[in-house]
C-alpha cells in the first residue's frame, strides 16, 4: 500500500491573525508616577558630619583620634563646643596650643572634662594654696600634666601638707619645678622612699636634708633606681654612705650610661674621684680630667 502525503495550504496550518485584534483587547494606560515628599532625617546629637569635625579638630591639636576614642568613649557624644571650652580654659592660663597634643595624649579624659568643675579648682589651688605665680602655672602643667586629673581635696592638698611638714617651706618651698611631687601618694610613694633611705643607715634628719637638697629623690623608683645604684655603689665602688649624703644627686645619673662607664675607666687606670667630680662634669671635661691624671701619674713615676 502506498501512502501519499498531502501538503495542505499554509492558510490551513497557520490561521491569519484577526484584523480586529486591537479592538478585542483593552488598551493599557501608561503608569502614573506617584511622587511623595519624604520628610528630611531629624538631626542627631552627633551626626556623621559633626563627628568628622571633631576628628579634624583633634588632628589640628596633633592628637591621635583612635587613641582618644579608645581611652575616652565619652568623646563620641561630646559637642565640639565643649571640647573647645577645655582649650579656652588651658589657654587662659598661658598654656600654648602647641602643648595641647602632649597633654591630651597623656590624659585623653581631659578632652571631655568640665573646666569649671575639674580644671579651674586646680588652677586656683596652685595659685592660692601653693602660691605659684601666675606666669609659672603654665610651667607646672607642662612639666607634669597629671596635675590636671588629680583631686584637690583627696590628692593635692594632703600631699602639700605632708611636704610642708617635711620642710618644703621658705627657700625650699614648692615651686613650678617641684609641683610634680604633689601628684605622688604620701603612703604609697613618698614615705616608702624616705624609709628606704633610712634603712640604709641614714638618720631621719639626714634624709630630710638630702631630699630638700635634691627633691628628685622623691620621684625615683625604689626597684629601678635606688636598689641597683646603691648595690653598685657599695659593692663595686666600695663607697660609703657619707659620700651619698654629700652628693645625693648620684641617684639622678644613669647607672649604665654614666656611673658604670666612668667608674670603670677610672678603676682600669687605678684612679679615684669623688662622686661629684666623677659625674657632674661633661664627657669632654671628664676625658680631659682623665688625661691630666694620667700625665701626673707618669710624672710621678719618672721622678
Summarize the structure.
This protein has about 300 residues and is mostly helical. It has 16 helices and no strands.
Produce the secondary structure layout:
Layout lengths: L9 H4 L7 H4 L23 H13 L4 H7 L8 H13 L7 H7 L8 H15 L4 H10 L8 H15 L19 H14 L4 H10 L8 H15 L4 H6 L8 H14 L6 H5 L3 H20 L1
Give descriptors for this structure.
4 domains; transcription termination; nucleic acid binding; MTERF_sf; transcription regulation
Topology order in helix (H) and strand (E) letters: HHHHHHHHHHHHHHHH
Number of helices: 16
Radius of gyration: 40 Å
Roughly what is the average pLDDT, rounded to an integer? 84
How many strand units?
Answer: 0
Major β-sheet profile: none
Unreliable sequence segments: 1-46
Query: What is the domain tally?
Result: 4
Keywords: Transcription, Transcription regulation, Transcription termination, Transit peptide
InterPro entries: MTERF, MTERF_sf
GO molecular function: nucleic acid binding
Family: Belongs to the mTERF family.
What does this structure look like?
The chain contains 16 helices and no strands. It has 303 residues and is mainly alpha-helical. Helix content is 57%, strand content 0%. It folds into 4 domains: 67 residues, no CATH class; 68 residues, no CATH class; 69 residues, no CATH class; 49 residues, no CATH class. It holds the Pfam family mTERF. InterPro entries: MTERF, MTERF_sf. GO terms for molecular function: nucleic acid binding.
